């Protein structure tokens, strides 16, 4: 599902990334100015197409003939770069559209990032795109680069140095600076880049367009995406799905992980911050793998490109070092990122010890300085480990050994031989330079990363990419049409439960009564013990006004409690309308979950589940996903809770009915998605999950209509 | 307290680090051999003292006259390097001791790292140190280097390149490779090193010696310590205290943080792994700050040296960037490491906006690309932030801007002016090169770190060092002599509680009875409701055999429960000796803690506390410290629990009696320390902590004598 009325993600971006002619509107003689730098860079790096500076006050710009206006150009340029002040940008775009240009990049700033006035000006640019069909990148963006094509539609100062080599990484970034810095690091490390595309304020082309276009670009093998926000969730999801369908790994640096970061992002982008955890869920569903820094983005993206199809088959990792201390650091780091460290088979250990008797043959394998003694020693140890059936990946740590020519002469041939022999296993290195040795290893198909933490994190990222590739594409959750609800009628517990029960959430048999006699009769019919709860549309939080009585064991207790409770409630909330008293069976045992939904500013209805009581409130141990989820994803949510062992029969507890709990989570999530127009929040507290086979039941429920949460 | 019979930490190491003459026993003509490399390096780097190769089969080694034996040397060398096979090491040491040498470095491997046989050989080396008073570094170590003195008693291949510059960082490492790699990174970054000292298998000189000597070394301003294990806890604690008394920051890379890492460390060092969390507690007490990687060790150590006395006064950090995206990343990273990000005062915000109207003047401050426009813009923004009363530290992020000459020309003078004006505040940079600009800034007293995560983590580390410096030195907990306990008499709950009550742990009044009538009478005297528990030295876990009955409200219930319980216990454990039944009042309400002690293989008795139930068991939310702790540290333990809000009155709960809980923790810890000879473990489960002012009480207690835990 993609927002109606907009182009499919990625459509029309060819002219931005593969233009045959580029006009620079606002071209400047001064190459340090934003209107001067692209003219300089296009010439310096040898753009083979036409470069048309547009400047009404110059006959020539940086050695090229200049044109007075877009209308005066010899032909319609494929791409127009708009490098004029904000107040002239709309007119410049209109001129270009009139000349027949189908794509533009707007460098100008002074739009939505300044607040309401700028937002209006920006909306005017978006309207030009909608009306003319011209795709507009920006405003307030750093533009786009295609390295192999020498198409340089940017004013990034990073290119004052040099271009990165042409290669497999496509960079799509909302932030110009973070995108630029990624390109800078790539260039410094000699890592190849296909495209660089920054979307800035996104009046038209958004990050989903950028990802989708790169997903279908032959030159791009891995997509690196930098996200600060998301202005159209369905388009983003669709773009990530397109990348997955194309078999292109997507590595995402999504910034704004903390409250402070989200506040900064909202202030910077002018967009509402969505829950960071919901972004995680979207990435997990679509197989994108998230990193936390520009350095990690490049490490993982580059490693994925080096691996190509040969991603690790599993997380069983063998660590090999020539140093016990580094082995310990590696083991710590590998464990922290979720790699598995199985012990080598006894036969493998014997093979290692037969070559280096003083080695530590367990995992991490410490082959001691003997590893660098003779090439055949290393070949034999590598072969022993790669032959081990418990090994999916071998991470060899060499610190700075490759700087020593004697060791380099031993390691490189041995690694080459093993890489060619064991194509089915990942062979990766943790190495601190030198650059030419790293390049040689990389060319052989071995990812090389500098640093213990960075190399183990990259390996774990490769495993996550491999798992995403292996996982079946998640089927869309079917949402049969549901009758619209009357929001006003949802405000009592009884009505909320009725609506949820109709949606498939188990509730208890219960009755609403008008007096103590009816209460006692209802209790007898339902079976003792029972609970009583006041029914009132004005009292969503019944406990706070004394409106709940628990564990009433006989008719006398029910009658007395009925009177006492109503007296308390009337004293506490004399204005509240009372619609009677709810009588329900009292259940014991089981595990209490809180289960609810709310509206995320970016992703709409989301479902949350956590253990009840202080776990959710104080430990913040809650799973959250966009609604709807199917039962498999609901079960994955439960499993992701730190407190999951409580449900899973830890320490002699009975195992809870996980299947029933998952069904309830899925049912609530479907309800929230179906009734998104009427329902702002659902709050089931608790959902009692009984022992395996005994089901789960919503003991209390509250629905907050959207009209109450403007 | 330092282990009896050993030299004070650091004593006698001068000869290792400031020798005037060095003999190399096993000197080799081949400079790639471990007996050849020091001869080469000492000459190459210009050691000004005497270099005496000892080799019975050569008249000359690498151009120097060689000697047949230690006895043949012209004088007693200050330092002997032992580079012979393991089986000849002891004889070589004896020869050197006989010649009058007071210190030796043993490179030879093949000792405790090989298991029992090697351990015996190593013990023989240790015995030579003890008998002769000669200090021995190693065996199986990479030796020692003093940079300014050109004293190179190592065979590290890192020095095949060059020495690091002489400077303030003293490196003390158990692992030769990790120590070497630290030195390599320092050299690459141009960071000055005073000493390099690797302790290897520690037959005599240990990591505590190394830290203590560096703490008292004039050339060393900051100690970088790499720990894999600890073989003598009191010496380590004393060494860290010495560093603190000397005002020298200690940054520790303690490896083996995870179970996998600890297993690797134990296998590598042959030493038992202590609880990683106890190391944390020891570092916290002594003011050492822990890092997780070699890179972070160098980042923080160098930054601390650059700051000198001018550490940040608090954690209130202002972030300044020229990029919204980097601002978000910085805010995320700063929050994650515990920095505070206060909003600037309104007046500060107005000052910033008066200079750059489109800036984001909140924290992070995004001064946009205008920041690099003119020097006076940056000066004014820096001044506004540094004048703000809410600012302890200003972190300026420039990515790679200093590579652009125009920007460098703006930034450097502005920073210099501000550094000189605001000496009371930390001014730090997150910058990606170039090296000469970094060196210039560093020389002005501004720490510079590459990378968002690394710079924020380093800043947080500086704050931790500053907090440690400000904190009062913890007083030793007084442990009055206590009468030794009879371990055999501790095995029942009643005896355990009696012993703990005598140590100051509150318990309930309770009685042990022999029959149902006595039980009913005791219950009446104590007051209903009561609990009954079986008393048996054979049944430490009473619940498992049905040996506990709760909430007995009258005499009839007590009589019935007494019979039923004993029948259940006899059926479940027919062999168990039953010594009666314990009757105690039944308390309700409050928060249940688990409180206990156990023996750590490295640190001896340690005290643990956590919330009862699944918090401690499943969430592993437990605080652990070496025993004894005082009440302030006990309170800090409680506050460190993730579940602390449960004790602190979260969500309308009554606040628990924290002072009483802390008193109980401290009392139990003193008990464990006093009775360390007799007691292996104490297990109080639960300690019921009642509402503020109502105290805490041990409801159940178990003491496991050391004779039960061989």
Automatic annotation (TrEMBL), chains A, B:
PROSITE patterns according to UniProt = ATP_GRASP (PS50975)
A GO molecular function assigned to this protein is:
acetate-CoA ligase (ADP-forming) activity
One Pfam family from the record: CoA_binding_2
Keywords from the named record: ATP-binding, Ligase, Nucleotide-binding, Tricarboxylic acid cycle
* All residue ranges annotated as the ATP-grasp domain in the record: 497-533
Magnesium among the record's keywords?
A: no
SMART domains according to UniProt: CoA_binding
The keyword Ligase appears for this protein: yes
Q: Which InterPro entries match?
A: Acyl-CoA_Synth/Transferase, ATP-grasp, ATP_grasp_subdomain_1, CoA-bd, Ligase_CoA_dom, NAD(P)-bd_dom_sf, Succ_CoA_lig_flav_dom, Succinyl-CoA_synth-like
**Which is a GO BP term held by this UniProt record?**
tricarboxylic acid cycle
Q: Which family does it belong to?
A: In the N-terminal section; belongs to the acetate CoA ligase alpha subunit family.
- The name on file for this protein is CoA-binding protein
């Amino acid at each position: 599902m993609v927002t109606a009325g907009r182009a499919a993600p990625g459509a029309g971006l060819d002219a931005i990334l593969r233009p045959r002619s580029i006009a620079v509107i606002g071209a400047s003689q001064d190459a340090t100015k934003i209107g001067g730098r692209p003219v300089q860079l296009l010439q310096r790096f040898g753009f083979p197409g036409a470069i048309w500076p547009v400047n009404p006050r110059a006959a020539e710009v940086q050695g090229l003939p200049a044109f007075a206006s877009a209308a005066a150009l010899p032909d319609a340029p494929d791409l127009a770069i708009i490098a004029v002040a904000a107040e002239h940008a709309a007119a410049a775009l209109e001129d270009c559209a009139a000349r027949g240009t189908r794509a533009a990049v707007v460098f100008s700033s002074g739009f939505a990032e300044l607040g309401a006035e700028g937002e209006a000006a920006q909306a005017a640019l978006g309207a030009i795109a909608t009306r003319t069909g011209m795709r507009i990148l920006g405003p307030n963006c750093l533009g786009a680069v295609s390295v192999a094509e020498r198409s340089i539609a940017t004013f990034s100062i990073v290119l004052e140095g040099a271009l990165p080599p042409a290669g497999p990484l496509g960079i799509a970034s909302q932030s110009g600076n973070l995108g630029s810095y990624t390109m800078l690091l790539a260039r410094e490390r000699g890592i190849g880049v296909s495209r660089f595309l920054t979307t800035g304020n996104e009046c038209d082309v958004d990050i989903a367009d950028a990802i989708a276009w790169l997903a279908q670009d032959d030159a791009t093998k891995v997509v690196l995406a930098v996200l600060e926000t998301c202005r159209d969730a369905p388009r983003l999801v669709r773009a990530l799905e397109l990348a997955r369908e194309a078999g292109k790994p997507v590595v995402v640096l999504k910034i704004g992980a903390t409250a402070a970061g989200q506040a900064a992002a909202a202030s910077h982008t002018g967009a509402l911050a969505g829950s960071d955890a919901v972004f995680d869920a979207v990435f997990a569903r679509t197989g994108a793998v998230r990193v936390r820094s520009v350095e990690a983005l490049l490490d993982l993206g580059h490693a994925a490109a080096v691996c190509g199809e040969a991603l690790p088959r599993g997380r069983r990792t063998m660590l090999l070092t020539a140093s016990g201390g580094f082995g310990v650091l590696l083991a710590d780091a590998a464990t922290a990122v979720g790699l598995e460290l199985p012990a080598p088979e006894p036969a493998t250990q014997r093979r290692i010890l037969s070559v280096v008797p003083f080695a530590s043959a367990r995992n991490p394998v410490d082959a001691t300085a003997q590893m660098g003694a003779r090439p055949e020693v290393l070949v034999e140890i590598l072969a022993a480990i790669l032959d081990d059936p418990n090994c999916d990946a071998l991470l060899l740590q060499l610190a700075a050994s490759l700087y020593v020519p004697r060791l380099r002469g031993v390691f490189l041939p041995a690694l080459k031989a093993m890489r060619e022999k064991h194509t089915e296993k990942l062979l990766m290195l943790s190495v601190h330079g030198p650059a030419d040795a790293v390049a040689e290893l990389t060319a052989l198909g071995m990812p090389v990363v500098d640093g213990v933490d960075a190399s183990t994190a990259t390996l774990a990222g490769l495993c996550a990419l491999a798992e995403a590739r292996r996982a079946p594409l998640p089927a869309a959750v079917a949402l049969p049409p549901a009758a619209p609800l009357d929001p006003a009628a949802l405000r009592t517990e009884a009505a909320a439960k009725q609506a949820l029960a109709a949606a498939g959430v188990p509730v208890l048999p219960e009755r609403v009564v008008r007096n103590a006699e009816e209460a006692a009769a209802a209790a007898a019919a339902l079976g003792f013990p029972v609970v009583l709860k006041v029914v009132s549309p004005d009292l969503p939080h019944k406990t706070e006004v004394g409106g709940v009585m628990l564990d009433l064991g006989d008719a006398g207790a029910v009658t007395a409690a009925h009177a006492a409770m109503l007296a308390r409630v009337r004293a506490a909330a004399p204005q509240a309308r009372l619609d009677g008293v709810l009588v329900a069976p009292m259940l014991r045992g089981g595990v209490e979950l809180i289960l609810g939904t709310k509206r995320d500013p970016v992703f709409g209805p989301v479902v949350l589940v956590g253990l009840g009581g202080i776990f959710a409130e104080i430990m913040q141990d809650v799973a959250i996903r966009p609604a709807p989820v199917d039962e498999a994803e609901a079960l994955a949510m439960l499993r992701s809770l730190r407190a999951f062992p409580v449900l899973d029969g830890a320490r002699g507890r009975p195992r809870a009915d996980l299947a029933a709990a998952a069904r309830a989570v899925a049912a609530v999530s479907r309800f929230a998605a179906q009734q998104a127009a009427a329902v702002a929040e659902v709050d089931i507290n608790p959902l009692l999950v009984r022992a395996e086979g005994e089901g789960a039941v919503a003991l209390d429920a509250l629905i907050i209509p959207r009209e109450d949460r403007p």
